[in-house]
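Here is the promised in-class demo. Please do not try to memorize the tokens; focus on the logic of going from shape to residues.
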């Protein structure tokens, strides 16, 4: 599996079922979140798929030491997972957020290291606390499913919010689902529709975007015209806010 394609399908499916079960006449959608691998959606059913890995270029961010990090990425793509772990561990221990994030993805799948959800969570948390948006998303997914940490919808929403504020589209989508269902946050259709609007056109064309469009239709069906206009006003006024550490 590519470093950039560990998906969060089950989480979306579980939350979606809760959202639509509360809506009169609404239907449960298939999973709404996937990440592309050569144009394809990956849908492995196990819980570890909840921990989303995103584009390498984004994850590199402002890494202080790029050489070993890139060497680790090259090793990963050649399936040299143990070598990648060896290269990333010293960087991660020195506080490199991208290395911490990448190392966490190895522990999620047990690639080159012994699989350990708690250790993955630890590395994601260290990166997330430095403002790494993909790691923040992974913390949200971890808390949502209780993977490597005690389950908490409140903490899931907190970390999805931080990632969503930075423009992480899959976090925006999950945050919208949480607001629609009232899980971890007060139920708020206006906020749900705002986040769906933001995520819609940033998602890959086809299935995922169509599913979000249907979710938007179902949520909007419960709203007044004034509430819909307010959601659109919030969406137009939204700007990504990158965390600076």
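The designed amino acids, position by position:
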């Amino acid at each position: 599996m590519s470093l950039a394609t560990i998906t969060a399908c089950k989480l979306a499916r579980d939350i979606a079922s809760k959202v639509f079960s509360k809506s009169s006449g609404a239907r449960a959608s298939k999973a709404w979140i996937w990440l592309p691998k050569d144009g394809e959606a990956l849908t492995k059913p196990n819980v570890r798929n909840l921990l989303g890995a995103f584009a390498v270029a984004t994850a590199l961010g402002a890494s202080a030491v790029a050489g070993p990090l890139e060497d680790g990425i090259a090793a990963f793509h050649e399936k040299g997972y143990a070598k990648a772990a060896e290269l990333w561990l010293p960087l991660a221990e020195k506080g490199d957020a991208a290395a911490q994030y990448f190392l966490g993805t190895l522990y999620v799948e047990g690639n080159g290291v012994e699989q350990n959800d708690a250790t993955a969570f630890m590395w994601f948390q260290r990166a997330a606390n430095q403002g790494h948006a993909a790691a923040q998303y992974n913390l949200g997914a971890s808390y949502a499913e209780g993977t490597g940490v005690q389950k908490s919808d409140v903490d899931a929403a907190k970390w999805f919010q931080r990632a969503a504020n930075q423009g992480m589209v899959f976090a925006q989508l999950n945050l919208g689902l949480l607001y629609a269902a009232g899980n971890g946050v007060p139920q708020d259709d206006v906020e749900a529709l705002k986040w769906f609007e933001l995520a819609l056109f940033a998602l890959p064309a086809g299935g995922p975007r169509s599913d979000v469009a249907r979710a938007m239709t179902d949520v909007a069906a419960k709203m007044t015209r004034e509430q819909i206009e307010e959601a659109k006003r919030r969406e137009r006024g939204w700007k990504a806010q990158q965390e600076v550490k």
